[in-house]
C-alpha cells in the first residue's frame, strides 16, 4: 500500500512539476492555456517511461539465472529487487545446507562395511553404496535408475524380491561361487525398499572348517577306540596265553598313546588359540633352545640318526620359551620320523642383515612333493597317512608350529624335494631378537 501511495505521490509530483514548467514555457511562447497540460502530460509520460525501464531491468534479471546481483535501484524497484534477491539467496543457502547433509548421510552409508541399496516403488535402483555394487556386480553410477532385477538376475534374488515376504534372510552365492552373501530387505515409505547385503564368506568358511575339524577329531579318536574295543572284547571272550596277552596289551597301549598324543595336541592348539600373544620382553637363549631340541631329538631317534645343533650362541629370542621349544621340538620330531635310519638332521640359526633371523631344521629324509607344501600346516593334513600314524603322528604338529611362529610375529617356510630331504625354517622378526650382552662387553659392543 505504501509503495502504491508513494508511486501515486511521485506521479502527482511529476505531473505538477510538468504543469509548472509547461506553464512557464507556454507563457513565454504566447500559449498560456496549453503549456500546463502539455507539460504535465510530458512529465507524467517521462516518469512512466523511467518506471517501465527500471521494471524491465528487474524482470530481465529475474528471467535470467540470477547468478549476478539484482539491479541496484533506489525506491520501489530497488527494494523489490533487494528483497527478491535476499529471499533467493536464503533459499539457495538452505538448499546447499540440505545438500551437504545429504552428502554426509550418503558418505556415512558409503563407509558402511555392508552393502546398502535403495529401491524405488518400481524396483529401480535409487542409490547404492560401492559395497553393494561390489556384492551385486553393479556400477553405482551407471546403473542408477535401472530395474535391479534386470541387472541382478540370480533367480533366488528375483523371486525373493517378487514374493514380497522379507521376514527371512536370503543367502546368495556370487556367480563364480567364490563368495557368499546374506541379503536382508526392509520396506519403508511408500513401496520403497532398503536392500542390505553382508559378505559371510569368511564366516561360512570358518563354520565349514569347524565342522571339518570336529569330523576329523571324531574320526581320529574313533579309530583307536574301535581297535581298543576289539582288544577288550578279545580279552574278555578268549582265553589268551600269557604271550598273547602281553602282545594284546602292548597293542592296546599303542592305541591309548595315540589318543593321548591327539588329546595333548588338541589341548595345545586350543591353548594357543585362546591365550594372549607371548610377551615381547621375556628373553630366552636361542642356543639353549636348539640344544634342548637336539637332546629331545636324540632321545627320540635313539641313535638312528646323526643330529647336530649349531649357532645362536649370542642371540636371544623374545616370547614363550615353552611354545618355542614345542615348535622346534615338533620339527625335530618330524625330521626323526620322516628320515630313514642313518640320515642326518641339522638345527641351525641364521641372523639376517635386516635384524630378522631364522631357525632351521633340515633333514636328509623322505622329502615332500611340491603339491603338498602349501597344505602341510593344515590341521590333520598328512602326505603319507599310514607312516604318520605308525610313527605316532597326529597330523597336528605343523599347525601347532605355524600357530606358535605366527604368535611370535614370524612365519614358517618349507623347502623340500622327494628323496632329498626337507628344510623347515621359522623366520622371526627383528623385534623378537636381540644379541646377548656379553658379561665383559662394553655397551658399544652390544648389537
Ligand atoms: P604328523 O603328525 O602327521 O607328522 P604334521 O603336521 O607334523 O603331522 O606334518 C604334516 C605332514 O607333513 C606329515 O604327515 C608328513 O607327511 C609331512 N612332513 C612333516 N615333516 C616332514 C619331514 N621332515 N619330512 C617329510 N615329511 C614331513
From TrEMBL:
Its main location: membrane. It is an enzyme of class 2 (transferase). Pfam families: HATPase_c, HisKA, PAS_8. Transmembrane segments: none annotated. It comes from the Bacteria. Its EC number is 2.7.13.3. Residues 216-432 form the Histidine kinase domain. It catalyses: ATP + protein L-histidine = ADP + protein N-phospho-L-histidine. GO terms for molecular function: kinase activity. Keywords: ATP-binding, Cell membrane, Kinase, Membrane, Nucleotide-binding, Phosphate transport, Phosphoprotein, Transferase, Transmembrane, Transmembrane helix, Transport, Two-component regulatory system. It is found in: Cell membrane. NCBIfam families: phoR_proteo. Member of the two-component regulatory system PhoR/PhoB involved in the phosphate regulon genes expression. PhoR may function as a membrane-associated protein kinase that phosphorylates PhoB in response to environmental signals. This is Phosphate regulon sensor protein PhoR. It comes from Rubrivivax benzoatilyticus. The gene is phoR.
Amino acid at each position: 500500500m505504501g509503495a502504491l501511495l508513494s508511486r501515486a505521490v511521485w506521479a502527482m509530483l511529476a505531473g505538477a512539476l510538468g504543469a509548472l514548467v509547461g506553464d512557464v514555457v507556454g507563457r513565454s511562447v504566447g500559449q498560456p492555456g496549453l503549456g500546463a497540460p502539455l507539460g504535465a502530460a510530458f512529465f507524467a509520460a517521462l516518469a512512466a517511461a523511467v518506471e517501465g525501464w527500471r521494471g524491465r531491468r528487474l524482470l530481465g534479471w529475474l528471467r535470467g539465472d540470477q547468478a549476478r546481483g539484482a539491479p541496484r535501484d533506489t525506491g520501489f524497484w530497488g527494494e523489490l529487487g533487494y528483497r527478491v534477491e535476499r529471499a533467493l539467496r536464503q533459499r539457495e543457502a538452505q538448499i546447499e545446507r540440505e545438500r551437504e547433509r545429504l552428502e554426509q548421510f550418503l558418505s556415512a552409508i558409503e563407509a558402511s562395511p555392508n552393502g546398502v541399496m535403495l529401491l524405488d516403488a518400481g524396483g529401480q535402483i535409487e542409490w547404492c553404496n560401492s559395497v553393494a555394487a561390489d556384492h551385486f556386480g553393479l556400477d553405482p553410477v551407471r546403473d542408477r535408475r535401472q530395474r535391479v532385477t534386470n541387472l541382478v538376475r540370480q533367480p533366488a534374488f528375483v523371486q525373493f524380491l517378487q514374493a514380497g515376504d522379507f521376514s527371512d534372510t536370503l543367502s546368495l552365492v556370487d556367480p563364480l561361487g567364490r563368495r557368499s552373501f546374506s541379503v536382508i530387505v526392509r520396506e519403508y515409505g511408500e513401496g520403497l525398499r532398503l536392500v542390505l547385503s553382508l559378505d559371510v564368506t569368511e564366516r561360512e568358511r570358518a563354520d565349514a572348517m569347524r565342522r571339518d575339524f570336529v569330523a576329523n577329531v571324531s574320526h581320529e579318536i574313533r579309530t583307536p577306540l574301535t581297535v581298543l574295543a576289539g582288544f577288550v572284547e578279545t580279552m574278555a571272550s578268549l582265553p589268551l596265553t600269557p604271550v598273547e596277552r602281553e602282545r594284546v596289551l602292548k597293542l592296546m597301549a599303542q592305541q591309548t598313546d595315540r589318543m593321548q598324543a591327539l588329546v595333548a595336541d588338541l589341548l595345545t592348539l586350543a591353548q594357543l588359540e585362546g591365550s594372549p600373544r607371548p610377551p615381547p620382553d621375556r628373553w630366552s637363549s636361542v642356543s639353549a633352545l636348539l640344544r634342548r631340541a637336539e637332546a629331545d631329538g636324540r632321545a627320540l631317534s635313539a641313535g638312528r640318526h646323526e643330529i647336530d645343533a649349531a649357532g645362536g650362541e649370542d642371540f636371544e629370542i623374545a616370547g614363550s620359551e615353552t611354545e618355542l621349544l614345542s615348535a622346534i621340538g615338533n620339527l625335530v620330531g618330524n625330521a626323526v620320523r620322516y628320515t630313514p635310519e642313518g640320515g642326518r638332521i641339522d638345527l641351525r640359526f641364521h641372523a639376517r642383515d635386516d635384524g630378522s633371523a631364522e631357525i632351521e631344521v633340515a633333514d636328509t629324509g623322505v622329502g615332500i612333493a611340491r603339491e603338498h607344501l602349501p597344505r602341510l600346516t593344515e590341521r590333520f593334513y598328512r602326505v603319507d597317512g599310514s607312516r604318520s600314524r605308525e610313527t605316532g603322528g597326529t597330523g597336528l604338529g605343523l599347525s601347532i608350529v605355524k600357530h606358535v611362529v605366527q604368535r611370535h610375529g614370524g612365519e614358517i617356510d618349507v623347502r623340500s624335494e622327494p628323496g632329498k630331504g626337507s628344510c623347515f625354517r621359522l623366520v622371526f622378526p627383528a623385534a623378537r631378537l636381540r644379541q646377548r650382552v656379553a658379561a665383559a662387553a662394553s655397551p658399544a659392543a652390544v648389537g
